[in-house]
Amino acid sequence: MKKNTPSWREKMRYRFENTLSAGTIAIIAWLAVISLTVVVVIAILIEIFGISNDPEKKTPMGFPEAIWAGLMHAIDAGTLGGDNGLAYRTVMLLVTIAGIFVVGTLIGVLTSGFASVIEELRKGKTKVLETGHTLILGWSPKVFEILQELIKANESLKKAYVVILANRDKVTMEDEIRAKITNTKTTRIICRTGSPLETIDVEVANPNEAKSIIIIAPEDEPEPDVHVIKTVLALTNHPHRKQAPYHIVAEIAEEDNTEAALLVGGKETSFIFAEDLLARITAQTCRQSGLSVVYTELLGYEGNEIYFKQEPNLVGKTFKEALFAYQQCALIGIQRKAGEVLINPTADLRIEAGDSIIAIAEDDSMMQLTQNNHAIDTALLSTEMSQRGEAPKERTLIIGWNTKGLKIIRELENYVAHGSEVVILNEEGSTTEKDRRVLEKIIKKQKIQTIEGNITKRADLEACEPTTFDHIVVLSNDHNSVQEADAKTLIALLHLRNMAEQAGKDFAIVSEMRDVRNKYLAEIARIDDFIVGANLISLILTQLSESKHLSQVFDNLFSAEGAEIYIYPITDYVQAGKEVNFYTLTEAAIQKREVMIGYKVGKDSSNPAKNYGITLNPAKNQTYTFAPEDKIIVIADK
After folding, report:
1. 480's torsion region: left (phi>0), alpha (psi -120 to 50) or beta?
2. pLDDT tens digits for range 300-348
3. 468 Cβ contact list (under 8 Å, min separation 6)
């Protein structure tokens, strides 16, 4: 078969097209070549035929002058007005016509090229040059809560940076952030467009120089955990990753994905197992009035937070001695040099070199040793003790149902007495037979009763007699859409609050919101009306991004097996009605193998302006006269 050889014209066209594909610079180069060719050809014609711009004198123009004149006519059509002589005007008209096309094309190319550059910059593809930034991978409504907390955390810094990489338009992300966060204070927020699953896109966000990385689970994905795990994999297995370990924080929703997440993340990633954590917080907060306010303050960056600090001057001292060495912060534990966290350790535990103290403080700058001699009034220590043995029988009403319901009931099993009762009001078929079988196997102390009904109908709610229950939990049905489930939760809450007002009784309600934006619609100024959901996960993600060691602290505080936060009567510690300082309260708590972190004033329990009576980390040299109904907040083992 005869070989089909391309013609020279085809070859030239092919090569010309290849040069054009190089972009704007190549097109400008071709226009320059065409302009120069035209100018040179015309100059040669002027030189050969002796064409002059002054026909009367017939003075030869010369080749260099002809090139200059041709170039000026090509660039500026107005130059033609000063020409003389028919021959000169003719050749310069040709140059000017060619120049009009070249310059017009050049302007179009430059405009198009400039627009392309602006569009490319708008897409957010340029590499981030900042270092020491917090990197957020992914996008969901949680991002606004996380940003607000990071802004608060960075207030003490002169400059701080947060970089967001998500598969969304850069300008759209920036507009949404500006609409919801009007003042970023010392924090600059940088958005980049790209997929967190693509290693090339992730490299744009400069993860190797980030101080921490937060991975947000997308809400529009059917399998958000798979997305999170793949994102962690893209980071930890990046070909150009740094040698030092990353500090990654991520959320996992499904318990079945826990093992795979831990295998991928290793020691570089702190995972929040959202459903387990929310179930623990729900079970704990619904049983203790005011505990929700304590958790909200500790998890946010307004008020007091948990800090770690190495203090060489305390090496060799006991934990009890360290407790009294700080006036402006409340010690809660010790982190050993090897990384082990001990919350509420024994009073005689000695601090070793390399250990860090763990304390509740308004700011880490407040963690300063004091030389003041602390005065303990032992005469005020109480000899009374409230009943803390067998827990009382409790009745819990769960309205609505989802997979967290099983975990909440299982967590309650760690606290309640035999003979306690759980009543579940749910829609027909929302509690599966599988759930019932699981409950029968794991629940020994509580009697389970299921009532079918509509959680938005007042008659069905009243039929449960909510005033007879110690605790009420409202869950979002997961077989509904997010907005529909939250709407039903809001309606149920409105009915319950109205019933409470009519009955003259305060309900201890813990409710769940799946969309963080609906949390603010459900909020009400009551100490025992607590909203759990995406906002709590956002707070914990932010806290862990600032200090990865907090993971062990939270695991301890939110678990029934470790030390937890309890609110006990003040009369268990000191005599009511007498002025007492908080050094004395610290001593009273340590004698009971507990750590004092705050107090609750009973008369202010309904006053949001006074934080519902809750005060954390009081200065130990301050004094206060407690009433019998007041309480002390401690960290204690069960």
Report:
1. beta
2. 888 899 999 999 999 999 999 999 999 999 999 999 999 999 999 999 9
3. 395
Question: How many domains is the chain partitioned into structurally?
Answer: 3
Helix spans in 273-412 (H): 274-285, 291-299, 319-325, 403-412
User: Which residue, among 528, 486, 56, has the nearest Cα to 289 in the 3D structure?
Assistant: 528
Residue 381 lies in a domain: no
- CATH number of 629's domain: 3.40.50.720
| Residue at a domain's end among 122, 147, 171 | 122
Distance CA 10, CA 441 (A): 80
**Is 294 found in the same domain as 174?**
no
Tally of CA atoms within 13 A in the half-sphere of 535 that contains its CB? 18
pLDDT, tens digit, for every residue of 514-561?
A: 777 776 666 664 656 677 777 888 899 999 999 989 999 998 998 878
Q: Which of 624, 623, 637, 620 is nearest to 586 (CA)?
A: 620
Mode of pairing for the β-strands spanning 395-399 and 420-426: parallel
Domain that holds residue 432: 286-306+321-333+392-638
pLDDT at position 2, please? 53
Return the axis-axis angle of helices 550-557 and 534-546, rounded to nearest 10°: 140
Within-domain flag for 481 = yes
Written as six digits, the tokens of 419 are 């003979």
What does the angle CA 80 – CA 81 – CA 83 come to, to the nearest 5 degrees? Answer: 70
How many angstroms separate the most distant Cα atoms in the chain? 127
**Pair 137, 173: CB distance under 8 Å:** no
- Tell how strand 248-252 and strand 212-215 pair up: parallel
DSSP string, 176-233: HHHHH-S--TTEEEEEEE--TT-HHHHHHT-GGG-SEEEEPPPSS-S-HHHHHHHHHH
Handedness of CA 576, 580, 585, 588 (dihedral sign): negative
- Enter the DSSP assignment of 569: E
- Is residue 577 domain-shared with residue 610, that is, in the same domain? yes
In a shared domain, residues 495 and 431: yes
**What's the pTM?**
0.79
Q: Could you give the dihedral angle defined by the CA atoms of residues 345, 351, 357 and 359, in that order, rounded to the nearest 10 degrees? A: 50
Both tokens assigned to 553: 């602290």
Is the Cβ–Cβ distance between 596 and 544 less than 8 Å? Answer: no
- DSSP H or E segment with residue 164: strand 160-166
**Phi, then psi, of 160 in degrees rounded to 5:** -140, 150
Residue 368 resides in a domain: no
Q: Residue 483 corresponds to which amino acid?
A: Q
Residues 550 and 487 in one domain: yes
Phi–psi pair at 213, nearest 5 degrees: -130, 125
> 588 φ, ψ to 5°?
-60, -40
Tokens in use for 409?
């009931």
Please report whether residue 364 resides in a domain.
Answer: no
Same structural domain, 329 and 226: no
Phi and psi, residue 287, nearest 5°: -100, -20
The DSSP H or E segment spanning 423 is strand 420-426
Structure tokens belonging to residue 487:
């709407």
Domain boundary among 72, 97, 122: 122
DSSP strand pairing (509-513 vs 471-474): parallel
Tens digits of residue pLDDT in 284-300: 888 888 888 899 899 98
Q: In whole angstroms, how far apart are CA 281 and each of 36, 123, 145, 181?
A: 77, 41, 19, 28
Rounded to the nearest angstrom, the gap between the alpha carbon of residue 438 and the centroid of all alpha carbons in its chain is 34
